[in-house]
Design brief:
By secondary structure, the protein is an alpha/beta fold. The chain has eight helices and seven strands, in the order αααβαβαβαβαβαββ. It has a seven-stranded mixed beta sheet with strand order 3-2-1-4-5-7-6, sandwiched between helices. The chain starts with a helix and ends with a strand. Bound molecules: S-adenosylmethionine. S-adenosylmethionine binds next to α4, β2 and α6.
């Protein structure tokens, strides 16, 4: 049932920028996990709805999610990207240049949690897509960096349905713990959207 719905949502999703398509092909061919077009459109929508100007990404890969944010914010936006792999930085800037994106991009190579600790807020949106075992730590990192009314968006909180299993590996346990902590945290009001692999959308209150 879930796969059927997912396939349908892909079918109704309009076509997009050819460079984004190219980035999707690269992900398919290399088994690189990107948020994909269903979540990409959602990020675009959230950037417009919050009138975002400053966005922080924890785990940017080669820039697919940042590309969607940039399409929404255009020249008014500033995106701080982080990733542990410096090859992703080169690849991201190559795509951005070819697409003529107008936002300002800053790409910091290193552990996103360590980088975030040194940043000054406020950000309008923080996208969280790092290694899943690191998820529980990101709540206390994100809360002071977000403005009130800003969004803390986290990918993969359904984890291919494994969060529902009785027997869970350590990665799944970390995601479940993260979700439990986030729902209970009085600094946020959280909902989970079951698109693609599930995204937690936490409003900073
Ligand atoms: C799922 S991919 C992110 C994709 C990106 N958000 C997108 O959809 O286009 C996760 C990325 O986060 C990076 N990563 C994982 N854990 C990290 C950490 N603790 N600090 C920095 N980067 C991390 C990986 O190198 C990988 O490129």
């Amino acid at each position: 049932m879930f796969q059927k719905v997912h396939k349908y949502l892909h079918q109704v999703t309009p076509d997009r920028d050819p460079v984004l398509r190219e980035m999707e092909t690269y992900a398919d061919e290399n088994g690189f996990p990107i948020i994909g077009p269903l979540v990409g459109r959602f990020l675009y929508q959230m950037a417009i709805a919050t009138k975002a100007r400053r966005i922080l990404e924890l785990g940017s890969g080669y820039g697919y999610s940042a590309f969607w944010f940039s399409l929404a914010m255009k020249s008014k936006g500033h995106i701080t990207m982080t990733d542990g792999d410096k090859a992703n930085k080169r690849r991201a800037f190559d795509y951005f240049k070819r697409a003529g994106l107008q936002s300002q991009f800053e790409f910091r190579v290193g552990d996103a949690r360590r980088v975030a600790k040194k940043l000054d807020g406020p950000f309008d949106i923080i996208l969280n897509d790092i290694d899943k075992q690191g998820y529980p730590d990101t709540i206390d990192l994100a809360a002071p960096l977000l403005r009130k009314g800003g969004l803390f968006i986290t990918d993969n909180v359904i984890w291919d349905g494994k969060v529902c299993d009785r027997k869970q590996d350590d990665t799944t346990k970390a995601i479940v713990e993260f979700t439990r902590l986030l729902y209970q945290d009085s600094r946020f009001f959280t909902s989970i959207m079951p698109i693609r692999d599930g995204i937690a959308v936490a409003l900073r209150v």
